[in-house]
Amino acid sequence: xxxxxxxxxxxxxxxxxxxxxxxxxxxxxxxxxxxxxxxxxxxxxxxxxxxxxxxxxxxxxxxxxxxxxxxxxxxxxxxxxxxxxxxxxxxxxxxxxxxxxxxxxxxxxxxxxxxxxxxxxxxxxxxxxxxxxxxxxxxxxxxxxxxxxxxxxxxxxxxxxxxxxxxxxxxxxxxxxxxxxxxxxxxxxxxxxxxxxxxxxxxxxxxxxxxxxxxxxxxxxxxxxxxxxxxxxxxxxxxxxxxxxxxxxxxxxxxxxxxxxxxxxxxxxxxxxxxxxxxxxxxxxxxxxxxxxxxxxxxxxxxxxxxxxxxxxxxxxxxxxxxxxxxxxxxxxxxxxxxxxxxx
Length: 344
Hints:
This protein has helices at residues 2-7, 21-26, 49-62, 97-107, 117-127, 129-136, 152-167, 194-201, 229-241, 251-258, 266-269, 287-302, 320-323, 328-341, and strands at residues 86-91, 112-116, 141-145, 171-176, 204-209, 246-250, 275-281, 306-311. By secondary structure, the protein is an alpha/beta fold. The chain folds into 2 domains: 2-15 and 215-341, Rossmann fold, CATH 3.40.50; 31-68 and 80-212, P-loop containing nucleotide triphosphate hydrolases (Rossmann fold, 3-Layer(aba) Sandwich), CATH 3.40.50. Helix 5 (117-127) crosses helix 6 and helix 7 packs parallel to helix 8. The longest helix has 16 residues, at 152-167. The protein is globular. Residues 1-7, 77-81 and 183-194 have low confidence and may be disordered.
């Protein structure tokens, strides 16, 4: 019986977790691969000087939490320019933005939070706006990874939310693949919400980071895929027998299941897993399904879970029209992460 149980892996589609707003807030820490991220172990690429410059600016921002030095007699009355309450790291995929953001989080005093943009909006949705503001009131620092505005509702919500927290003394840091003045382009009529977008941009000092995606420097440019479902099943059985915590699902069934669960709960769906197996992968035909899958991959990557798959390589699941549309950067980030997850 034991061997039979090991050979039959459980399915993600059997998981429909619930999670409270308080539990969600408790998950707002850096992904485990950044548990030891620091300024000291960030390695700037010498071919891209902006990485070293970004490190220096992040260090300087962190100095803002240190007590101000008392001025002497001749220093009285002198005023230094007011520093902005936030710093914004803009750059491509895999150039170390999240490492620097996590390092800043580790250096910051508490209470402090670290999460992706979608995690914050999901938490606000779960708690309600007033309760979310109350929960985060008193926070010394909030880190927002993958800052992205996909609709006008999120634009106004986050502008108001961050504004209230900054007014209470909270400092902010964010990463994104999109400069603040370009947020929302290609997804909605950004010009109609220019005031809200500008209000967000005005809260941050913008730091540009150039470079190559480290996830693709030492791996092949495609996600590994098994030739047949049978080969995948054999790999699943072997890993289950070896004691790895693995699930096995048909791709289309998982995609359907994700549509029944709020993205804020994906983090609990993958909790405790080592490997996820997906059979019969096919390209997306529906953008809503594709965006849900992007949110799911974010949680899988953060948890450092390996993906085994058969069918279409995972980095090819987003149809050409999707990659050419307004969500291009979201999809490209997911591709980068799936390549890494399929080669861990």
